[in-house]
Design a protein that fits this description.
The chain has seven helices and ten strands. The chain is an alpha/beta fold and 241 residues long. The protein has one domain: 3-Layer(aba) Sandwich (Rossmann fold), CATH 3.40.50. It has a seven-stranded parallel sheet, with helices on one face. It has a three-stranded antiparallel sheet with strand order 4-8-7, with helices on one face. Helix 1 packs across helix 2 (41-54). The longest helix has 18 residues, at 9-26. It is globular. It binds 2-phosphoglycolic acid. 2-phosphoglycolic acid binds next to loops.
Length: 241
């Protein structure tokens, strides 16, 4: 894993956007794997700026998001579908038919997950996968557990994640307790991975990530086995290294 320590959140956002833009420019039909959460918001702002100011072209770009709550309506302002439209898709020239997220409104989660995985394979796989990390080491909604699932699947959220995400909801009871998520195998198949980590609250998990140990208790630790991972950190997240 390559590790780049930036001064602050803005620098992480700028450098992350530059790395995604490089992929978009070198392959106009690239497949981007995208993430939600507070960490990538600044990077998406920069990409929107690059589109508006410099004409960065998303007209043939395809995207697959990591995960979505289940069940949740797309119109719910806490759905990841809403988040992606609000933070990125509504502001760039991406085609609706090229946007993919697991469908939180589906009736049959198992069928939805299988179809999502098949669609991603048919698109040729992910060129660059953007990731955040949970304070508990999750990536997507692959939560610490004795076993980790390989393909896209329906999963329960841990208490730690429900608590971490409650800040976006009116009350903790409103946080969905399940999600559809790319599995560890789906994520590891991406040709390159860009992991963004900012803030002091992530410093303990960053320390574990660079412990040279792979454990299902820190799902992100499996990324150390991937040949092309860049970790962009701010100084606060790197403070225990
Ligand atoms: P955050 O979430 O960016 O809001 O910290 C990251 C994650 O849970 O993957």
């Amino acid at each position: 894993m390559d590790r780049i320590i930036c001064k602050n959140y803005d620098e992480v956002s700028l450098l992350g956007a530059a790395m995604v833009a490089k992929v978009v420019k070198s392959n106009p039909r690239a497949v981007l794997g995208l993430a939600t959460g507070s960490t990538p918001v600044g990077m998406y702002k920069r990409l929107v700026e690059m589109h508006k100011r410099d004409g960065l072209d998303f007209s043939m770009i395809r995207t697959f998001n990591l995960d979505e709550y289940y069940p949740i309506k797309k119109a719910n302002d806490q759905s990841y579908d809403y988040f992606m439209r609000d933070n990125l898709f509504s502001h760039i020239n991406i085609k609706q038919e090229n946007i993919h997220l697991p469908n939180g409104e589906c009736a049959d989660p198992a069928a939805e997950c299988a179809a999502y995985e098949a669609m991603l394979n048919q698109a040729g796989g992910v060129d660059i996968q953007v990731l955040g990390i949970g304070v508990n080491g999750h990536i997507g909604f692959n939560e610490p557990a004795e076993e980790l699932q390989l393909p896209t699947h329906l999963t329960g959220l841990t208490a730690s994640t429900i608590e971490a995400n409650a800040r976006f909801f009116e009350s903790i009871e409103q946080v969905p307790t399940q999600a559809l998520t790319m599995g560890m195998g789906t994520i590891m198949k991406a040709r390159s991975i860009l992991l963004l980590i900012t803030g002091e609250n992530k410093a303990p998990v960053v320390k574990k990530l660079f412990d040279r140990v792979v454990t299902t208790e820190v799902p992100a630790s499996f990324l150390t086995l991937h040949p092309d991972v860049t970790v962009l950190l701010d100084e606060a997240a790197a403070s225990l290294l």
